[in-house]
UniProtKB/TrEMBL annotation:
<keyword id="KW-0653">Protein transport</keyword>
<keyword id="KW-0067">ATP-binding</keyword>
<dbReference type="InterPro" id="IPR011130">
    <property type="entry name" value="SecA_preprotein_X-link_dom"/>
</dbReference>
<dbReference type="GO" id="GO:0065002">
    <property type="term" value="P:intracellular protein transmembrane transport"/>
</dbReference>
<feature type="binding site">
    <location>
        <begin position="105"/>
        <end position="109"/>
    </location>
    <ligand>
        <name>ATP</name>
    </ligand>
</feature>
<dbReference type="GO" id="GO:0005829">
    <property type="term" value="C:cytosol"/>
</dbReference>
<dbReference type="InterPro" id="IPR020937">
    <property type="entry name" value="SecA_CS"/>
</dbReference>
<protein>
    <recommendedName>
        <fullName>Protein translocase subunit SecA</fullName>
        <ecNumber>7.4.2.8</ecNumber>
    </recommendedName>
</protein>
<dbReference type="InterPro" id="IPR014018">
    <property type="entry name" value="SecA_motor_DEAD"/>
</dbReference>
<feature type="domain" description="Helicase ATP-binding">
    <location>
        <begin position="89"/>
        <end position="248"/>
    </location>
</feature>
<dbReference type="GO" id="GO:0008564">
    <property type="term" value="F:protein-exporting ATPase activity"/>
</dbReference>
<dbReference type="Pfam" id="PF01043">
    <property type="entry name" value="SecA_PP_bind"/>
</dbReference>
<comment type="similarity">
    <text>Belongs to the SecA family.</text>
</comment>
<dbReference type="InterPro" id="IPR011116">
    <property type="entry name" value="SecA_Wing/Scaffold"/>
</dbReference>
<keyword id="KW-0963">Cytoplasm</keyword>
<feature type="binding site">
    <location>
        <position position="87"/>
    </location>
    <ligand>
        <name>ATP</name>
    </ligand>
</feature>
<dbReference type="GO" id="GO:0005524">
    <property type="term" value="F:ATP binding"/>
</dbReference>
């Protein structure tokens, strides 16, 4: 009951998952009092004083106060930055396992370093999980003098780090490392055949930078370790054939823009072009798959939005960060299809040896804490998935940024015209402007418009991300116009007057400070807030304004309002409350949809994680003990004794270990491939249940359990058969001759979970299209698909409101709509179709 009351109270304050800072503020006062005695110490005495606090059981409250006083002074001595009270509060909260929300420019990096050093002095090993190589290296080097003065060892890891460098770096008390690199190292260590080949240390404390982005946005992204198998080329005739297909005639795109499918007419056209074959016969399923992935690549994946072509390679764009995702690729032949589309060399394909989601990786740490500029919005999700609370630290100086109301237009073109006119007006006064766009393509299109309007500017996107620090650092200089894709995780403060605040800082302040303009709202309010937060740092003046249109992707994909009849002015601008309410509602639906996707993804990966833990326990015993020798001596006693006499017991034990590890890994690889296929088609099995209500996740778990049930036993059987005929000499096991070769090459990458969507996605997309307002459809000439109730799963046709999917409940429950939409004219959704 108490927890429910607390939860409601937090909701009332719109601070879900946040905690009371009172205890931390009281301790911070004591830190200030203790600091007076620290000032008289020499550097050597300060380091010795920290050393006297070292323990293996964590710092108690009195020890934390003394340490923080020493750390605060160390920051001032080492890098000229004395932590504000807010930074001390943030460090205390992180030492208590909280995620801290601190506004941009409030000094999260120093607060995180102090917390990490506190954990290290308390006998813990800390990995500060960054979002990219640049920030990991920069922060480790920047904070290095502070750690040195505190007597704490520090290191950093990047994509180019060698195994030896990684092994050494992980041994440091504090290691700055991109979260993806930790995941990939964990995956590689799971497949070693010799303990000495491991590089990672025990996962102890994770201090996550940009915590909301890593823990929520990227949590469902699987990190994959693959082994080389073959080059997967797409037939040229398939590529050319797909380019002749016509939208709306030969194929249809679902309302979300996530899936595309051949129509009956399109199927006939393709089959005729392929010498009259039946695409749906078993012998032609490979060709059908090629057609589907080629169509997906041609129609749904957009150059300069989803990927770039650079240096003769297809490079995916991380939409969360606006950067090249150097290790990311698409699965299921889609990578090869995009490469064929762009006429670049096809990269090697491979089989998945193992994978892990970012969420599963993070949950492997004993202690979790973190910091970000926007955590409150996802406070409930952080509690649900990680059982951590948010500590909201107030800014050191009051925020005086002025956030203007969003400007809404009927069409994208009207929005863009108004956007450029407004930029020109603000630029004429000389005020520094930062413009946030959603994609490389959009940033370059806006750049063209600004050039036509003779507005000088610089562009920061995935094509020139190497220059980002220099570009961002100068965005606060008067007269500067900076166009950038996603600002989350850029990691560089925008100071008025430039990096050293020497370029007309006073003029920038007089003009109102940095002015942030968004070219459209994001699917999450957090991303809008992250962009806004670039202005108004440390009490500076600033402003923000977002432009949007009813034809923006956010509205067309997630709006479920009906009866809307907008009345724009001569410029296309909409100011009525009902139209503006559509934006808020679309964002809430998008947030809900992403949260549900996270929840669903975690449901499917949770059982796999439990099965992996069982397998890894057995694998660890094989790797570090004599389990393999014991098992194989029992299953093939005559062969075992014979080999011991010929080559010696140590050689036989080593061979047994390698054979057993091969078959455990082989069985696990096959199991993962089975689970991938199972998940792709599980919705069909659930719909086949007839009267019985079958949940896809229940059906998935049932089949996954049955598949794994005998996996380890079957691995021992396979190992015994191999052991009986293996080539084992005094030099050891000949792996290739014995049929147990290791992969000739391995590589790591990230994938987007289920890129083709599901049948449920398609059904919900049609529902949303069916109830979209006519006027919005007319703006972009969108023709919604006809929707037949018979296409719904049977269990949804007569479902009560509380049984409906979240998106449908949002649409059906008037109380959940923004107040300004509740009185919208009610019409039959079918009447609003063209």
């Amino acid at each position: 009951m108490a927890l429910k009351i607390a939860s409601r109270f937090r909701r009332l304050l719109q601070r879900p998952g946040s905690i009371d800072l009172g205890p931390y503020e009281r301790l911070t006062q004591l830190v200030g009092e203790a600091e007076e005695s620290v000032l008289a110490l020499t550097d050597e005495e300060l380091t010795e004083a920290v050393g006297e606090l070292r323990t293996t059981g964590g710092l108690h409250e009195d020890e934390q106060i003394e340490f923080l006083a020493l750390a605060r002074d160390a920051g001032n001595r080492a890098i000229g930055e004395r932590a504000f009270d807010g930074q001390v509060v943030g460090a205390l909260a992180m030492l208590q396992g909280r995620v801290v929300e601190m506004a941009t420019g409030e000094g999260k990096t120093l607060a995180g370093a102090i917390a990490a050093a506190g954990y290290a002095v308390g006998g813990r090993k800390v990995q500060i999980l960054a979002v990219n190589d640049y920030l990991a290296r920069r922060d480790a080097e920047w904070m290095g003098p502070v750690y040195e003065l505190l007597g704490v060892s520090v290191s950093h890891i990047g994509q180019a780090s060698t195994p030896d460098e990684r092994r050494t770096a992980y041994e440091a008390e504090v290691c700055y490392v991109p979260v993806s690199e930790v995941g990939f190292d964990v995956l590689r260590d799971r497949l070693v055949t010799d303990v000495a080949d491991r590089v990672t240390a025990e996962l102890d404390v994770a201090l996550v930078d940009e915590a909301d982005s890593v823990l929520i946005d990227e949590a469902r992204v699987p990190l994959v370790l693959a082994g080389a198998t073959r080059t997967e080329e797409l037939d040229e005739d398939v590529v050319q054939l797909v380019r002749t297909l016509r939208a709306g005639v030969d194929y249809e795109i679902d309302g979300d823009g996530r899936t595309v499918a051949l129509t009956d007419k399109g199927t006939d056209k393709v089959e005729a072009a392929l010498e009259g074959i039946n695409l749906y016969e078993d012998d032609n399923l490979d060709r059908l798959t090629q057609i589907n992935v080629a169509l997906h690549a041609e129609v749904l994946l957009r150059k300069d939005v989803d990927y770039l072509v650079r240096d003769g390679k297809v490079s995916l764009i991380n939409n969360n960060r606006g950067r090249i995702a150097k290790l990311q690729r698409w699965p299921d032949g889609l990578q090869a299809a995009v490469e064929a589309k762009e006429a670049v060399p096809v990269s090697d394909s491979g089989e998945v040896l193992d994978s892990i989601t970012v969420q599963a990786l993070i949950k492997g740490y004993k202690t979790l804490c973190g910091m970000t500029g926007t955590a409150v919005v996802v406070g409930e999700s952080l509690q649900e998935f990680y059982e951590v609370d948010v500590a909201v630290v107030p800014p050191n100086k009051p925020n005086i940024r002025i956030d203007d109301p969003d400007r809404l237009y009927l069409t994208v073109e009207q929005k863009n015209v108004a956007l450029v006119e407004h930029i020109a007006e603000v630029h004429e006064a000389g005020r520094p402007i930062l413009i946030g766009t959603h994609s490389v393509e959009e940033s370059e299109q806006l750049s063209d418009r600004l050039e036509a309007a003779e507005i000088p500017h610089v562009v920061l996107n995935a094509k020139n991300d190497a220059e980002e620090a220099a570009i961002i650092a100068e965005a606060g200089v008067p007269g500067t116009v900076t166009v950038s894709t996603q600002m989350a995780g850029r990691g560089t403060d925008i100071r008025l007057g430039g990096r050293d605040e020497s370029h007309d800082k006073d003029k920038a302040i007089e003009l109102g400070g940095l002015y942030v303009i968004g070219t459209g709202l994001h699917a999450s309010r957090r991303l809008d807030d992250q962009l806004r937060g670039r202005a108004g740092r440390q009490g500076d003046p600033g402003g923000s304004l977002f432009f949007a249109s009813l034809a923006d992707e956010l509205v067309t994909r997630y709006s479920v309002s009906s009866g809307l009849r907008p009345h724009p002015d001569d410029t296309g601008r909409l100011t009525d409350r009902k139209s503006l309410g559509v934006l808020e509602h679309a964002q809430r639906v998008a947030d809900g949809a992403n949260a549900e996707l996270h929840r669903t993804t975690w449901s499917y990966h949770r059982l796999t994680g439990q099965q992996r833990a069982i397998l890894l326990d057995t694998r660890e015993k094989v790797l570090t003990e004599d389990l393999a020798a014991t098992e194989l001596a029992e299953k093939a006693k005559e062969r075992y004794d014979e080999l011991v006499e010929e080559v010696g017991e140590d050689t036989v034990k080593d061979a047994a270990r390698r054979i057993a590890l091969h078959h455990l890994d082989r069985r696990w690889t096959d199991h993962l491939a089975y689970l991938a296929d199972l998940r792709e088609g599980i919705h069909l099995r659930s719909l086949a249940g007839g009267i019985v209500h079958l949940k896809p996740i229940d059906e998935f778990n049932k089949s996954a359990i049955a598949s794994f049930d005998t996996l380890i036993a079957d691995s021992w059987t396979d190992a015994a058969e191999t052991f009986k005929t293996a080539e084992i000499t005094s030099e050891g096991l000949d792996e290739a001759a014995s049929g147990v070769p290791r992969p000739t090459a391995t590589w790591t990458y990230l994938i987007n979970d289920n890129p083709f969507g599901t049948e449920a996605d398609r059904i919900l997309g049609r529902l949303r299209n069916a109830i979209k307002p006519e006027s919005v459809a007319e703006a972009e000439e969108i023709l919604p698909e006809e929707f037949d109730e018979d296409e719904l799963p049977e269990e949804l046709r007569d479902a009560d409101d509380d049984e409906l999917p979240e998106e449908l409940r949002e649409a059906d429950d008037e109380d959940e709509l923004p107040e300004e939409l509740r009185d919208a004219d009610d019409e039959d959704p079918k009447d609003s179709r063209k």
